[in-house]
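The data are passed on as follows:
___
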Amino acid sequence: MASAKLGADMSHVICTREAGAVIKTYSPNLMVHPFLQECADPDMPDSAVDDTARTIATQVRKALFSRLHALVIGPGLGRDRLMQSTAVELILAAKQDALPIVLDADALAVKDVVYDYPHCVLTPNVVEFRRLERARESVFNEKPEGEEPGEACRRLAGAFNGAVILMKGEIDYIAAAVGQEKGKEGERETRLASCELPGGLKRCGGQGDTLTGAIGTFLCWRKAFHDGLWDVQGEKMSGEESLRVAAWAGAAVARTASRRAFEKKGRSVQASDLTEEVHGAFLEIWGDDPEREGRRERP
């Protein structure tokens, strides 16, 4: 919903049949596709799980990928074996099409698939970040004592060699390895940025979905930018730079929406309240189009 509220033309939700019936009640504006399945038999052989996952991913790719500009994987995914295997196959399919990906929550468990992929944003919280550190233990086995969070984020981004790491926290850090030839770990410059716009004083469950949805929409606009949809004067940003900008912009919207929701609801604020503040957060940060007729006043 955050993606749609920010301005995505269409939001598709890929889910299980059971979840689809519920999700359709959220909004008539969501396109719900119940392709996914959970593993019905806990003793199902791994080979059968992988075969089923490939079949599902093929169906999704044929039905939807030509209509998508970005893919968000993680919210509501769970740890079911078949769901996790399907996530892997969808990521592999997305990589073949150079489709931008956002990974969050349970999808971070399949992080190895996006190593060296320059069209991906990972959005770990503090606990998830530590898991990613352990997964790249060879890079972190000599972690400096008292290392600052930003430097830790920079080092993890270097270990992923292309994907953007957005570490959520009191300050959101965004880092990625840039330049040089792919596949040569340790030879690429790693750039770091931070988003320190004030957020709300309460972090509620599901708040990360606002972030991933916002990043997803900015990735859609990023594709339109690089496809030349808009007449941009001067030198264009590179794909690497625009990926980091999309991640920063998503963080800015999520933090501002959180602050605005908390100012209105206080400690009772819920994730759904952030969704209603997404559009206002965008206007607060960047304003409206001054050339558009009937321009609204800024909040």
Q: What stands out?
A: The radius of gyration is 19 Å. Residues 293-299 have pLDDT under 50 and may be disordered. The first strand starts at residue 11 and ends at 16.
